[in-house]
Amino acid sequence: MENRGDEVQSRSAASEWVRGGGRLEWIDVARGIGIIAVVAGHVWTRGPLRDAVYSFHMPLFFLLSGFLSRPQPPARFAIRQLVSQMRPYAAFLILLIIADSIIEPSKGNSPIFDQWPQDLLPVLLGGSWLRGPFTIFWFVPCLMASRIIFNAVSARWPDPLDHRWALAIVPAFIGAYIVGDVTRASVLGSLTVPMALVLLWVGAAWQRVPWRRWMWLPLTALSLAGLSAVLPTLNMKAADYGLPLLSIASAVASTLLLFRLSVRIAPVAGWLAAIGRASLVIMYLHVAVIHYLSPYFSKPWLLIHALLLPSALYYFLRANGWGRRIFL
User: What is the pLDDT of residues 63-116, one digit of tens each?
Assistant: First the structure.
């Protein structure tokens, strides 16, 4: 869910990692796989499938964002991020608040936010104060803040393999576990920022690492340990990172293998790329679709609706100037 302009700037470096990468269709394919995993994890809220997707699904987006990153002037980058990310964040949040205030009373229920102006504070705080159809809204401000901080450091140390990065990444990694033990309160997803910074750095560093055949064995072993729930799973929103180091390492391993898979299947996976291009709208709206339709559909149908309805809205918005300006 990277800005298209940033993606174009990253085209050269990413293509070096994937020989003959060309159009980078695989990036949209990877996004498609990631967002399907996110939706599946909110449809099946317990059991082996839920544990498998929670072992990697949110780290995938942070790693991909880091992989595509290139150092940019910090002030200009921060302003562009605030404008381009918080505008659709606010637009989708207001849209869902209005929808909830219509849908829930029609079913004889009270809307989630029904005490105004008191409810304005939790709406503005976001993050852990948002629940139900709004629960995923922690992700975008967390990613935005993490990218602004990461880019500011990258502007000073443009090589992610520079040993000075340890001065930022080691404290962030340790701090991620400490703050997760101390509190679950997360203003605009800020609780997850320390680990998000680590994952952004891993993605950026991996862009510089040539693939070697020997990597398949340790990455596959780590990945399977997470997917099979041998290692405790993750809940990034709550800053729960499972078994220290190993659970997050498993998430990284699964994601890197999915990147390789995405490269291989990109020529024949146009439908996955189409879903990937709509991933931001799906991210914002899929929980609401599941929330409102769960009494009426089985879980497989919920998955399909939660992917296709937001995807259709994305392509509708993309085709309209006002839709692009406000929501995309």
Answer: 999 999 999 999 999 999 999 999 999 999 999 999 999 999 998 889 999 999
Whether the pLDDT of residue 21 is over 50: the answer is no
Residue tagged 């998430």 (tokens): 251
Cα–Cα distance for residue pair 4/265, rounded to 1 Å: 22
264-302 pLDDT per residue, tens: 999 999 999 999 999 999 999 999 999 999 999 999 999
90 contacts 130 by C-beta, under 8 angstroms: no
Closest CA to 161 of 214, 192, 206, 118: 206
The tokens for 232 are 């405790």
Torsion sign across C-alpha atoms 304, 307, 310, 315: negative
Query: Given pLDDT bands bounded at 50, 70 and 90, which one contains residue 20?
Result: very low
Neighbouring residues of 87: CB distance < 8 A, sequence distance ≥ 6: 326
What is the distance of C-alpha 115 from the center of its chain?
31
> Which position has the token pair 């891993």?
202
Distance between CA atoms of residues 316 and 328, nearest Å: 11
Which residue in the block uniquely carries the two structure tokens 């680990």?
A: 195
Question: What is the four-CA torsion angle of 51, 185, 32, 98, rounded to 10 degrees?
Answer: 120
- From the list 60, 46, 51, 7, the residue with the least C-alpha distance to 283 is 60
Q: The pTM is what?
A: 0.91
Q: Which secondary structure element, helix H or strand E, spans residue 303, and what is its range? A: helix 299-318
User: What number is the average pLDDT over the span 239-247?
Assistant: 95
